[in-house]
Amino acid sequence: MAFPAGFGWGAATSAYQVEGGWDADGKGPCVWDTFTHQGGERVFKNQTGDVACGSYTLWEEDLKCIKQLGLTHYRFSLSWSRLLPDGTTGFINQKGIDYYNKIIDDFLTNGVTPIVTLYHFDLPQALEDQGGWLSEAIIESFDKYARFCFSTFGDRVKQWITINEPNIFAVMAYEFGVFPPGVPHVGTKAYQAAHNLIKAHARSWHSYDSLFRKEQKGMVSLSIFAVWAEPAEPYSVSDQEAVKRVVAFQLDFFAKPIFIDGDYPEVVKSQVALMSKKQGYSSSRLPEFTEEEKRMIKGTADFFAVQYYTTCLVKNQENKKGELGLLQDVEVEVFPDPSWISLNWVCVVPWGIRKLLKYIKDTYNNPVIYITENGFPQGDPTSFDDTQRWEYFRQTFQELFKAIQLDKVNLQVYCAWSLLDNFEWNQGYSNRFGLFHVDFEDPARPRVPYTSAKEYAKIIQNNGLEGPP
């Protein structure tokens, strides 16, 4: 089962989750610094990313792991507040530039292609204090930050992700309030944030396109989180329609404006408008794009970056009482099949990734696709032998092979989440997704390969699995 020649095998991390050095060498505070330092059990055992994997000082150790795997690609994110402590180019932190220059140069020396994310949930606190993603001003701030990064690193970085999982971020931060700034605004502010995230992405894509593309010849996209969905009752028309709504509200909400026509899916607009009217709002809680904005947003991605972990079953659930909330707008109940193996929030459903890829191919004009995250948590954190977890990875690679060979999906890069066990947001260090185990009790933060790391290295060396799919 050889994958196409030149297929990209990668792993991924993000700045806040691995770097540590939260106030080192002139770095400004980000919202996660503020959020975790406030305590209140908002994160498992009040853990923080102050030190995390210590990658800010232990980069050489990470590089050893990357070389040990034989990765062709590596996705990491830039800490906005390490580069621009107050979020603006008014003060530029040279030590931050030096750190990322070293990483990027080490990649090129070792034949690894960097995929660089500009924003992975860690907004500079100074910008949050001015309204953050709920303020229109963030669009300009993000565009200026993106231009700074393109001009500083774009001579060597050719693959950019503007925003990581805008759909997850908007919901977790503003619907549920479990990500910073930590205040839930049920049914309203997540839409507002998402609206600004889309416009910020589009603006920065245009900046790259007009100012940097000709000389740098790179590509820019954003990474969208996607759960595949199946009807709870396969022959129920109402459940089938509910599945379409789940996909529309989650994946298509961001992908349709950017890849197709600059606007939200019709079912999203009609559902939110209908519910808003029921609830006595004078207009829809979903903001509208102007015609000019639609033109600006349409076509602002050079490849399709998607992040898949799991699949769910969906049942139609009419919102008869007109309750406020995102899930209530979608009018669904979402749950796992009890027969699926469940690892924390991830149900092991490898075939879901193939269905998702086929959907993207058919819906979005057969784009080049990068899987920028996919993975499974290690069930037993005390053991380095994760043979069972590796089996889930192996099944996933079989499904990817089928997607490429049988469905003719144009998948070009796969990034496992994650290179290292790291700070998994609200779950702190309790949920381990790393290919390498990190001992968070040891100040040296030693990295030790799980069985999965050794097996993944073989896959990369062979450019695929041995044996029939």
UniProtKB/TrEMBL annotation:
Keywords: Glycosidase, Hydrolase
A single GO molecular function term of this UniProt record: galactosylceramidase activity
Cellular component annotations (GO), alphabetically ordered: cytosol; membrane
Stored InterPro entries: GH, GH_1_N_CS, Glyco_hydro_1
EC number of this enzyme: 3.2.1.21, 3.2.1.45, 3.2.1.46
Class of enzymatic activity (EC top level): hydrolase
GO BP field: carbohydrate catabolic process; glycosylceramide catabolic process
Catalytic activities: beta-D-galactosyl-(1<->1')-N-octadecanoylsphing-4-enine + H2O = N-octadecanoylsphing-4-enine + D-galactose; a beta-D-galactosyl-(1<->1')-N-acylsphing-4-enine + H2O = an N-acylsphing-4-enine + D-galactose; beta-D-glucosyl-(1<->1)-sphing-4-enine + H2O = sphing-4-enine + D-glucose; Hydrolysis of terminal, non-reducing beta-D-glucosyl residues with release of beta-D-glucose
Family: Belongs to the glycosyl hydrolase 1 family. Klotho subfamily.
Alphabetized PANTHER family for the sequence: CYTOSOLIC BETA-GLUCOSIDASE (PTHR10353:SF291), GLYCOSYL HYDROLASE (PTHR10353)
Protein name per the record: Cytosolic beta-glucosidase
Organism: Moschus moschiferus (Siberian musk deer)
